[in-house]
């Protein structure tokens, strides 16, 4: 397989996925990855982390189908499915081909936090071998949307 560079889908502070307050993500049940604690702003834009096709799509989460059968999942906040899309605006449709850096979703970390939910965002390489991922940013570092985040071999 070729090495695939994944960009940060949003701006914030990089955290280990083990710090996500949801065992499905924290324990790697769906795959390895990293988490981003978003900037506490009223409106934030989420970008495509790589070239691909939008697979599963919800206001609070999306799966991006990449080359060579790989899929990346980006989940905006924890338990945000309960918001039923409120505070999230989709800019793409399922099945749409996107390029790295394309705008996919806008959301409000401030509103999510105000509703009592955690804003941390898991970025997960679905079904990947943990050794296949290389984090390109140190834990605790701040990234901007579009910055290099992970290499996936």
How would you portray this structure in words?
- The chain is mostly beta strands and 153 residues long.
- The chain has a single domain (4-152), classed as Distorted Sandwich (Glucose Permease (Domain IIA)).
- It contains two helices and 14 strands, in the order ββαββββββββαββββ.
- The protein has helices at 23-26, 109-114; strands at residues 4-7, 12-16, 33-38, 44-47, 52-58, 61-65, 71-75, 88-90, 97-98, 103-107, 121-125, 133-135, 142-143, 148-152.
- The strands form three sheets. Strands 9-5-6-7-11-3-2-13 form an eight-stranded antiparallel β-sheet, with no helix packed on it.
- The longest helix is centred in the last third of the chain and has 6 residues, at 109-114.
- It is globular and about 40 Å long.
- The N and C termini lie close together (6 Å).
- The relative contact order is 0.31.
Tell me how many strands there are.
14
| Percent in helix | under 10%
Q: Please outline the major beta sheet.
A: 8 strands, antiparallel
Q: Quick check: average pLDDT?
A: 96
Q: What's the gyration radius in Å?
A: 14 Å
Low-confidence stretches: none
Task: Output the strand order for the largest sheet.
Answer: 9-5-6-7-11-3-2-13
Note the beta-strand portion: 35-45%
Instruction: Encode the helix/strand succession as letters.
Output: EEHEEEEEEEEHEEEE
The CATH superfamily name is Glucose Permease (Domain IIA)
Shape estimate: globular
Task: Kindly give the count of domains.
Answer: 1
Q: Based on helices, strands and strand pairing, what is the structural class?
A: mainly beta
- Through-space gap between termini: 6 Å
Task: Specify the CATH class.
Answer: Mainly Beta
